[in-house]
Each structure stands twice: as structure tokens, then as C-alpha cells.
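#struct-queue
[09:14] JT: dropping the first one here, sequence first, then the C-alpha cells:
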Amino acid sequence: MRFFGDLCDDLARSVAFLSRIPMPERHFVDHDGRLSRAVRAFPLAGILIALPAALLAALLDVFQASSLFTAFLIVAIQALVTGALHEDGLGDTADGLGGGRDRESALAIMKDSRIGTYAAVALILSFGLRVSALAAFLPLLSPLGAASGLLGTAALSRTAMVWHWSRLPPARRDGVAAAAGVPEPRATSQALGSGALLSLLLFYAAGIPVTAVLLAFTAFALAVSGFGRIISRKLGGHTGDTIGATQQLAEIAVLGALALAI
């Protein structure tokens, strides 16, 4: 019973960290704000966070709504539920990497709340690529398949955050990610294992072909590992922004692969 109680606490803390969904206060009693163990629940939290968008996708599919209209609504609902947290990370990271001459200037730019040219371009591409990918393959799936495919992608993209977070040290000591702690090795393994398993089960439930699933996982691995190497070289470590950007890049990679292969 204690295991399930701890898991519920970790899930609630993960959902609260990754979204604007209110969680009961009882899950935060005596909590110091660190997520070292709670990251194990990130894949499941991703599923819960994406559930409203998945239900909407299934409903609109039943009513045979325009695929492009449906895709835009899905992305809009996801941004609303998360408070555009991951998009903010992508934009700040793009500005830092694009405009920073060195590590220090890049980190300084990333702390600036203003949106620069690189952020604007990155966000336009992020929304455009996700919407076009969703519009391409959602009509080819059943209502249940559309919902399951979205949930599987959500679980995998939050798994990417833990992978990136655990591989690199903090780039600065006063950042959000540094304050949240370093993922525990056991929690990291649980997140990676459960994220992959949940995604596979949901993709199977969606009726997605095996070749499409393999391509999606390959794209996921290449995107997350490649981005991690770039961040390590440019910044020397992760920040809260790069963790959010990893979620966006992983989601784009997975959705793009599904659009190509289904």
C-alpha cells in the first residue's frame, strides 16, 4: 500500500510540475520541491495531461470533423493544459543557442523573458510540424486509435525529458531544474522502461503498424540523443528550458515519423 501511496504522490507532483492541472494539497505535505524520485511518474503524467486532447480527438473523429481543424484544436488544448510550458522552453532554448556567442551569453539570453527571432521561428515550426503531422495520420485511425496514438506520443515525449535531464549536469545552480534535483538512477530506469512500455501498448491499441512504431522510436532516440549532444557542447548541461525543449523535439519527431509511416 505504501508503494502505491508514494506512486500517487509522485504522479501528482509530476502533473503539477508539467502542467497547470491542480492537484490535491495532501500530495505535497512536507514535500521539499525536489523531483528526484517523482520523475519515474513522468510518462504516466504525460498520459493524464494529454487525456483531454485525446478525448477531443476521438470525439471529433466520430463527427468526421476536418483533420486540419482537429489537429489545431489538439495542439491548442495541449498548450492550454500545460500553460505552454514546453513551448516556452523551446523558444528560450532556440534564442540562447541561436543568439549566444558563448555559454554565458547563451544562458543569459535564455533567462530573458522576451521572444527573439530564433524563438519565433522555432515555435512556428513546432506548431506547424505537429499540426501537419497530426492532420496527415489521424484520419487514417479509428477514434480509439487516434486517442491512443496521442497518449502514446505524450508518454514517450515525457520520457524524453527524464532521459535528457538524467544524462546532463545542471548548467547553472540557480535554475528550476537544479532546484528540482537530479533524477535518481532507479527512478530514471523506471521512467525509461515504463515510458517505452506504455507507448508500445498504446500504439498497439491504436492499430499503428509495426514499421511505423519502429520508425517513431528511432526518430525519438535520434532526436533526444542528438539534441543532448548539442546542449552538452553549447551549454555544458541542462536547464529547465532545455528539458522542455526536449519534450517538444521528441513529440515532433514521433508525430513526424507516424505521419510518414502510417
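[09:21] JT: and here's the second one, same format:
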Amino acid sequence: MFFLKEYKAKKIKAPNNFSNRRRIMSSDNKNLIYLLNKRFSWMRKYINRKKIIIELGSGNGCIKKIIDDKKIILTDIVKYPWIDKKVDMLKINLGKKYLNKVDVFIINHSLHHCANPGLTLKKMSIYLKKKGYILINEPETSFFLKFIQVILDDESWSLKSKVFNRKSIFNPKNPWISNTAIAQLLFKNDKKFKKYFPQYQIVENKLSEFFIFLNSGGVNSSFFYIKLNSFFLKILNIVDEILIFFLPNIFALNRTIVLKKINENKK
């Protein structure tokens, strides 16, 4: 399984964002809140005092559980009641008033549902102001993520996808099709990324999450977990960091990327 280059899930599963949102927003699950803090709290240093902050693919809008910032504009391809603006990540039609005006884009575990991530990054740079940021969390296609996806028939991955040619890598008509290897393909090789996206600089590129995700109770689904207090959650996170430091290809389940726009958009 470790050597598999691709896997196609037999069923395309759309999350129930209504029930997931209710569960997250009213949650007393300390494990899940700890995980969400790991995913979002670091973003504060990039969005502090910024005027225009847009999250793409907001889904259940769980960022609001951690970062209660009214300036964050939640967008999604589905106009849920909590979504501020309906936006297709493939088109990103935000309007002229946002051209070169956006301070920060946020993409949390939704880029792998984008059929053409290269085109999406290009379109974002049109709206992003110079020295603006793109803050990204995405799955990391390690051995254990592959194992989980096969066992649960959860999502698909393909390390063969050509993400830099700006052509669709799967059917763009279904927003729930995915390739969880997208972040790895785009950002693992810094030189290759810079070759295709000279307008961006990779500021941060970190791997994280193993036990703290597996024992979280789930973000887009609900599953069994062992309740832990803050002390043991911190210990678990330290264990994760050690495992990922020595064996990232085995244990890492999340990749965090920060892109900074340093040049004007290139055609």
C-alpha cells in the first residue's frame, strides 16, 4: 500500500455540513477543539489588522469556532445559510472591487476537491494584493493517510496527476471528487513550484497531525474517540511531532502552507 501511486474511491461522499456544523459549533469535545486550534490559531498572525480576508471552500464554516473575526468572508460552491458569498474555486468571480485588494485567502482542506488547483492559484493571485498571503491546510498523502482512505473508502489520491499543466485532473462538475495528493504534488518541491508560480514565495511548509487527528472525533464526520484533557492532548501532539520529524512519509496527515505574493501575476 505504501508504494501505491493512486487509489480511486468507489463512492463519492458528500459531507452533511448542516449536522457537522451543529456538532462542531456546540461541541464540548476537547480533542476536536484542540485539533481545530492547531489548524487555525496560527493564522491569526497573518490576518491580524487585515481588512479583506476570504476563505474559499468554507464548507461547514468551522473556522468561526476558533477565529471569531467578522471580517472573514466565508465562501463555498454551495450557498449554505452561514456562507457569505457563493464562489466556485475554479472561477473565483469575486468582482472588480476585489482585484489586487484581498489581503489574505484561506483554504482549509478544500483545495484537494479542486479539479484544477494550478488555475485556482493563478486566479487567486489576480485578486491578492502584493505581499498578501494564502494560508492553506491540506491532507498529506503519507502511508497512514493512504491506509485510512483505502480502509474507509473515503477519498481518492493520485500521485500521477499533473497539477502544473493547469488542466483539470478530474471531473470538475462534481465538487466532492478529490485528490488528497494535491498539496504534496504542488508544494513538496519548492524549486518546481517557483518555476510555475514565480509570483509566489513559500513562507511556511510544515507537516503535522497524526494521533491528534485520529483521536479528534472527526471534523467532517463523527467517529469514536478517547476523551483527553489539555495536558494529555499536548503530550499527544509532542508524540506526533517526534513521529513526523523522523518518519514524515509514514505519519503526517496534514500539510500547512503559507504563500506570499511577491510579484505581479504572470501569464
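[09:30] RK: nice, looked through the second one.
[09:31] RK: The two ends are 39 Å apart (CA to CA).
[09:31] JT: good to know. DSSP finds eleven helices and nine strands in the chain.
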